[in-house]
Amino acid sequence: MKRYPICLILLCILSAATQAGELTRVAEGDRFHLAVGSYLITNSETELRYTSPYLLGLTLNTSRDLDMDRRDRVARLDGYYRFTPAHALHFTWYDIQRRGLKSISKDIEWGDVTFPVGASIESRLDTEVLKLAYNYSFYHNEKVELGIGAGLHITKVTAGLAGIASSGSRSNVETSTTAPLPVVGARLNYWMTPKFSFRFALDIFGIEIGNYAGTFTDIDFRLLYQFGKHLGVGGGFNVNSLNLEQNENGHTLEVNNDLGGVTLFLTLNY
């Protein structure tokens, strides 16, 4: 039942779009778009699994086991450069750095280091995201732009623990993985007025290559208002889910990350 209102909205947009012809050149102020602002994360849930030839398995939930905050606020950059009305390059970057401090309620074994029950553990989880995607607009006029594309979602995840180990000395353990996952996507831009518009983007993929396997889904929705010739403001929401596995020399790291929040930004357009 929930599909019908969405379908009705899309039909109305496409109906309105037929009243105007296809663009033959890039519209003024739409060649380059840069959004600079904040990503207000309202829910971040991460589960880490680590196994090695010497360890049957370690599973950590960053909120439950390490007391990391699910909320955060980070800087974020989004934008695109449009070569022609039909061809554009899109990009996104943000870096989430979560920290935790907790007296653990169970033994944590990481490689050859064991943190015993009751130890005060400092934890960190850094997730840096860079997205690059080419978009082909198969339909584009003054009101509507519909496009499909492909690109790379590059995620670098670094996790670390520090505290007094069972040996009695302070230990630091860390693991890191970087995965360039190819994605395919679709985009819808709709100008309700020359100054007021909304944009929707969906990226999704799943792949297994060599030592890497992963799936990814990203949904981004935003409203924009252009209050000057080159300046505007906007806001929206962004949710994504990443499942990543890396195998190397008998060591396996799995990362399951669900992220969602609100975006607020200023825009620069040329």
UniProtKB/TrEMBL annotation:
This is Outer membrane protein beta-barrel domain-containing protein. Residues 1-20 form the signal peptide. It comes from the Bacteria. Keywords: Signal.
